[in-house]
Write a structure and sequence with these properties.
The radius of gyration is 26 Å and the shape is globular. Mean pLDDT is about 85; it is low at about 15-25. The chain is about 35% helix and about 40% strand. The protein has helices at about 5-25, 30-40, 40-45, 105-120, 120-130, 185-205, 215, and strands at about 55-60, 65-70, 80-85, 95, 135-140, 145-155, 155-170, 175-185, 225-230, 235-240, 245-250, 255-264. By secondary structure, it is of the alpha+beta class. Strands 1-2-3-4 form a four-stranded antiparallel β-sheet, covered by helices on one side. Strands 5-6-7-8 form a four-stranded antiparallel β-sheet. It has three domains: about 20-95, Nuclear Transport Factor 2, Chain: A (Roll), CATH 3.10.450.40; about 105-185, no CATH class; about 210-264, no CATH class.
């Protein structure tokens, strides 16, 4: 190859190498975040199951973006299917949260085994009498890895929470090692309890945004929180260590604001 041809080849090669960088430079940080997140190996297998998945990226910190992956089963209320936290400057993936996806053949078999296990549990039998007389459903929640078995008759609703332990699911060995009933709950009260828990969590998140919170708890390793409803959507959150109150905040979870706060 003569000198002129070699020079032309080098120039062409340099241009080809620059194209991906040029394309990346034209992308917004949100688009970069989605591209990085969608390449995560834990997420790839999940996204292959949904042709119409969507993604929303939002800034968490400088160069740090969270990416939510959604499926528009209901256009007005898309279903959340995963989350990835990425650094758009370095391309690093800090955190991935995706549901457990069981093979269909495994899930079908386990539905029957879980229902049979719950239907023969002494506590369930004492509450329901004959479970066969109740309408029922069996669902697996991939986000918490638990099974939910619901029994309904008239206005009564009871829900069993079950864990199935596999021999070694990481190696695709879905032989069941153990089936354990975590609890059996009044379904009508369960929704109310879940809402209260969600409200408390929201109050804690809001309180942690209050001015002065970092100075109050930053150097304390064993702090915890106590949350109580003050009035309607207003909640009091105390950050405590042992018997010592480190910080108190009054928040309004509907208005999404910290109303007042104090140290000690």
């Amino acid at each position: 190859m003569n000198t002129l041809k070699r020079t032309i080849w080098i120039i062409l090669l340099a241009i080809l190498m620059l194209v991906p960088l040029m394309v990346q430079a034209q992308m917004s940080d949100e688009e970069k975040a989605i591209a990085i997140a969608a390449g995560d190996e834990d997420l790839v297998a999940l996204l292959e199951q949904f042709e119409d998945w969507e993604a929303e990226a939002y800034e968490e910190d400088e160069d740090i973006y969270g990416v939510d992956f959604l499926v528009p089963i209901d256009p007005e209320d898309p279903e959340f299917i995963g989350f990835v936290l990425v650094n758009v400057a370095t391309g690093e993936i800090y955190e991935t949260f995706v549901p457990i996806v069981l093979p269909t053949s495994v899930e079908v078999v386990l539905q029957e085994r879980v229902l049979n296990h719950v239907s023969n549990d002494p506590e369930v039998l004492s509450r329901l009498g004959s479970p066969d007389l109740w309408e029922h459903y069996v669902e697996f929640d991939g986000f918490d890895g638990l099974w939910y078995v619901g029994f309904e008759r008239g206005l009564e609703v009871w829900v069993a929470v079950v864990e199935v332990v596999f021999v070694d699911a990481d190696e695709d060995n879905y032989d069941v090692q153990e089936i354990e009933l975590y609890g059996f709950f009044d379904g009508n009260r369960l929704e109310e309890q879940e809402q209260i828990a969600n409200n408390k969590n929201q109050a804690i998140i809001l309180a942690y945004e209050a001015d002065g919170i970092d100075d109050a708890v930053g150097d304390v390793e064993d702090w915890t929180t106590m949350v109580s409803q003050y009035n309607g959507s207003q909640w009091t959150v105390q950050f405590i260590s042992g018997d010592t109150v480190l910080f108190t905040a009054l928040v309004d979870i509907e208005q999404d604001v910290v109303l007042q706060s104090s140290t000690g």
